[in-house]
Write a structure and sequence with these properties.
Largest sheet of chain A: 4 strands, parallel
Helix content of chain A: 40-55%
Oligomer: homodimer
Shape of chain A: globular
Number of helices of chain A: 12
Strand order of the largest sheet of chain A: 3-4-5-9
Number of strands of chain A: 11
CATH topology of chain A: Rossmann fold
Number of domains of chain A: 1
Chain lengths: 299, 299
């Protein structure tokens, strides 16, 4: 989803002269399909020396937890092979690598807010693989092999499209489905707090990171992205202001112990002063996130 | 050095019934030599299902910086292959893995003191490889494949034996050489502060970690070990109290810009309350570190 939106955004950007798209899944006819962890695949990717490489490819959280080997192969080995392939080009080639990390690198218990200096102690294999990617990115950057920036993306909300079975799916579902005249399930209490940014904001993080001054970033190459801290109750009130009571009545409360346990290990609020000082911007409140969803997906 | 001292300590321990020693370098006749990153080597290591595995094997800081590929192969791939080999045994096998990490996982700038929640943003490839090892250890533990404890060891001082060319070598050299009636070179100013534990304390950290209750450790499986925070000036005064002015006169000040730059990125003081609460103990002051050296090496 993020890759598709980023592609649309870059296609409108006059400074982008050439765009090569590679996906591990066969998404559409114009996109090359490659398994970056397969022998030779990473080398082929960088053979024409792109100036900027967006490394979004990942086995997402639920799948990385269900399939331990696949998660490590794609998320860890894939990232490392990409960095190695860039290093192997040599001849002063040092592209900007924008690495999509995640707030999943953090694991409870947390201070409130979570500062830029807080340790990464993930509680999922996905978060572990992203945290390792950050460390590799920083070391390859320090050694002069790449010019990497890692972005710890908030939970993307409102995610467009069909409901998925990710543990975080309901955060988008309770907004998206009611605005579509459909019912949505809420498996956690209203006081659960989490950290969000819209798909539009996430794409702008990536685009901004492509052009940012690497020297200003310093040795700590990964940045927690700004976002909106909101409780489920605040999400619902934002929905009410756009869709009215009728939309809110579409939300059905069905407590799910498993999802509650998973979500209780997730962060609720960050102090992202490093990213803000470097010019990264997210929405101001959850009302704005709902408005962006209506503008980008429902008009 | 640490492996040898640990072996001597375990050989005196009545609860240890069998001890298998494996080194990447041919150290002595009774020690198997194996490259844990070579195919099949890790599987052979765990075939007889040891209860406790001490993972000390490493390419040290200077060599990992000089030989990028070797550092990643031994320190990262070697650790991962060991964890994978343990996982492959299956059948409920879940040994205690004591992983020797390092305060090199931290990189300046620092708060003073550095707390247990502080981020790992290493400034060396060695520190990066150790930080990745910590993340793998935590995830393999969370998934139930191993029961891991990572120990971020302080700089070991006074390191016995001949001077080496490690950037940190002078911290031991300025004590060890004068007490041997030899000259020592001091390449940094007297106000440089660093974090130390004796070889004896480090061995006891490892032995303690072998028997500690894993449940009490929780999800954050790596612990910064207690130590002594001392400046070079405090080291020198401790030396004077044992060896007199004559010993101190053996220290020759030869400022070295390269070493000064490296050392300026190193930590000076930690708040290690997690490790202290779990029963890990180091020396109380640098005088005690010098005394331990005299007792263990010079008597």
């Amino acid at each position: 989803m993020l890759g598709r939106k980023l592609t649309e955004r870059l296609a409108r950007d006059a400074s982008v002269t050439e765009l090569a798209l590679v996906d591990v899944a066969a998404g559409s006819a114009e996109i090359d399909v490659a398994d970056v962890a397969a022998p030779g695949a990473a080398a082929a990717l960088v053979a024409n020396r792109p100036d900027v490489i967006f490394a979004l490819a990942a086995v997402l959280s639920g799948e990385a937890e269900a399939d331990f080997d696949k998660g490590y192969r794609v998320n860890l080995d894939g990232t490392r092979l990409l960095l190695e392939a860039i290093r192997a080009v040599g001849g002063g080639y040092r592209p900007r690598v924008v690495f999509a990390s995640s707030i999943a690198v953090f694991g409870a218990p947390f201070p409130d807010p979570i500062g830029d200096d807080f340790q990464a102690t993930p509680l999922t294999s996905y978060g572990t693989q992203k945290a390792i990617g950050e460390l590799l990115l920083a070391d390859y950057t320090r050694r002069g092999f790449v010019d990497g920036i890692g972005l710890r993306l908030p939970t993307i909300c409102v995610r467009p499209g069909a409901p998925n079975r990710a543990a975080s799916g309901f955060f988008s579902g309770i907004i998206r489905e009611p605005l579509n005249g459909e019912d949505a399930v809420l498996p956690v209490p209203d006081d659960v707090r989490h950290w969000f940014a819209s798909p539009r904001a996430a794409v702008e993080f990536l685009v901004h990171a492509a052009a940012i001054d690497g020297v200003a970033v310093g040795d700590r190459r990964s940045l927690t992205m700004p976002g909106v801290s909101a409780t489920v109750a605040e999400q619902i009130e934002a929905l009410r202001r756009v869709g009215g009571d009728e939309a809110v009545r579409r939300i059905r409360r069905e407590p799910d112990e498993t999802i509650m346990r998973i979500v209780s290990g997730w962060p609720g609020r960050f102090d992202t002063r490093r990213a803000l000082a470097l010019g990264f911007r997210a929405e101001q409140d959850f009302d704005e996130i709902v408005r962006v969803h209506v503008e980008d997906e429902l008009s």
